[in-house]
């Protein structure tokens, strides 16, 4: 069925390393791809989003890339810090509604 | 602005009981949403509303009801609670979609952790 697949489910890195999370989607009509960060005990919060008219967007240490032909998009975090430890969700528009991936638990070790 | 607020934070229900999860936003957003989050499963849309008096089903609406009498409030009602409804519930809101159909950031509340025993 129409969905959003996210990988990996867990990711462990050393402080200062880069982290990459990948998502694929099935609805070719999707034109909005946000990424949310969820800290323990809190609701998700938008950290970056990209629309289908651009291929890459950067905001300080985070960047998102989009390949519409292959229907996948990725989150890149550089120079990771312990405060980047959280659950990250990708999302895409499926059937006209925002649909979330399963989430990635990122742990950054000092 | 308080943003999106939810009450209660935690609740334990017995099978068959009912309850209402409250959600209020002070950002004058037209769109509001209810999600449930199960471990390792991401967020699933239960119901959403595009404005006062208008609601529609999401992906997993069975066992829930909603109403939207004001712009600010979007309560979620559970009738005859079942163990399968044990989850963390998030309310969210966003600005209306533009005429071009562009989507906007959803702002989430802190969640309600519900356990049905």
Strand and helix map with partners:
The complex is a heterodimer of chains A (110) and B (117).
Chain A: E1 4-7, E2 10-14, E3 19-25, E4 32-38, E5 45-51, E6 56-59, E7 62-67, E8 72-77, E9 86-94, E10 97-100, E11 104-109
Parallel strand pairs in A: 2-11
Antiparallel strand pairs in A: 1-3, 3-8, 4-5, 4-9, 6-7, 7-8, 9-10, 9-11
Chain B: E1 4-7, E2 10-13, E3 19-25, E4 31-37, E5 43-51, E6 54-57, E7 64-66, E8 76-78, E9 87-94, E10 107-108, E11 112-116
Parallel strand pairs in B: 2-11
Antiparallel strand pairs in B: 1-3, 3-8, 4-5, 4-9, 5-6, 7-8, 9-10, 9-11
Would you mind describing this structure in some detail?
The complex is a heterodimer of chains A (110) and B (117). Chain A has 110 residues and is mainly beta. Helices cover 0% and strands 59% of the residues of chain A. Chain A is built from no helices and 11 strands. In chain A, strands 2, 4, 5, 9, 10 and 11 form a 6-stranded mixed β-sheet that branches. A 5-stranded antiparallel β-sheet of chain A has the order 1-3-8-7-6, with no helix packed on it. Chain A starts with a strand and ends with a strand. The mean pLDDT of chain A is 93. With 117 residues, chain B is mainly β. Chain B is built from no helices and 11 strands. In chain B, the strands form 2 sheets. In chain B, strands 2, 4, 5, 6, 9, 10 and 11 form a 7-stranded mixed β-sheet that branches. In chain B, strands 1-3-8-7 form a 4-stranded antiparallel β-sheet, with no helix packed on it. Chain B is globular. Chain B starts with a strand and ends with a strand. The model of chain B has no long low-confidence stretch (mean pLDDT 92).
